[in-house]
């Protein structure tokens, strides 16, 4: 251990002596020449740290025993970055600027990377979330895009044969909801077979609800599709309209006979 300390001290003294050092008004010591700390080997270029002001380049690295950088900070005309790497020298976490001073990036390229805010890295680890914010909120002043599903109060997105993009455990409040679906104007087509009122009465007595409309039990178990339900309700309204027109015609005939 003493030999190691002595060797490092000798190396630092060598660098110190062979650099041109200056003291500013505050007493700080600095040099305008290249500063290298670590093994000197231009073929392998394993410097732990160097600074070359003439090239506008700064680099600092911590390396392991296989000469792989595990932490580094770099600055030059093309980019600025700070990186944390694994034992093989591959990025685990990197933040930096490419080219323009406003083109900033942060990446964690491994597929099992995760970011936890407000707790430790093991928090909710078994649930597999990539981003966890504990006891806080997030505000996005822009668009939010997801190619998967979004759950609020739930992580269940499957209901029967359907998989939903938005699943909410609780009530939803909005000023408006727009649903795209087919509509029920087929009731007014010549080919539509309008049930007689006798057929309607018979179906109600046998089933306890209107034909084509789900029963109370079905709704309680499976819920309703807003678009489909509105279409079915319109279908019944249009059927009622046709019944009303027919009744009016029958009333007119009866009135004419009375007159």
TrEMBL record:
Record's protein name: Uncharacterized protein
Signal sequence residues: 1-19
Naturally occurring in which organism (per UniProt): Winogradskyella echinorum
Annotated keywords: Signal
């Amino acid at each position: 251990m003493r030999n190691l300390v002595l060797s490092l001290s000798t190396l630092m003294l060598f660098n110190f002596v062979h650099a041109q050092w200056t003291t500013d008004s505050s007493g700080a010591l600095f040099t305008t020449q290249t500063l290298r700390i670590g093994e000197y080997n231009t073929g392998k270029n394993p410097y732990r740290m160097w600074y070359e002001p003439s090239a506008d380049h700064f680099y600092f690295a911590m390396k392991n025993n296989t000469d792989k950088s595990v932490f580094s900070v770099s600055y030059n005309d093309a980019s600025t970055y700070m990186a944390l790497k694994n034992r093989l020298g591959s990025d685990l976490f990197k933040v930096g600027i490419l080219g323009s001073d406003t083109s900033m990036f942060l990446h964690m390229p491994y597929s099992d990377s995760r970011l936890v805010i407000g707790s430790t890295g093991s928090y909710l680890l078994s649930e597999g979330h990539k981003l966890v914010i504990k006891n806080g909120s997030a505000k996005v002043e822009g668009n939010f895009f997801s190619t998967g599903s979004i759950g609020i109060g739930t992580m269940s997105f499957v209901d029967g044969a359907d998989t939903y993009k938005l699943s909410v455990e609780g009530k939803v409040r909005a000023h408006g909801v727009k649903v795209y679906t087919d509509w029920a104007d087929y009731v007014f087509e010549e080919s539509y077979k309008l049930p007689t009122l006798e057929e309607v009465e018979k179906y109600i007595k046998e089933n306890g609800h209107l034909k084509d409309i789900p029963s109370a039990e079905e709704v309680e178990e499976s819920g309703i599709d807003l678009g489909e339900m509105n279409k079915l309700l319109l279908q019944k309204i249009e059927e009622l309209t046709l019944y009303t027109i027919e009744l009016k015609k029958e009333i007119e005939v009866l009135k004419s006979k009375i007159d």
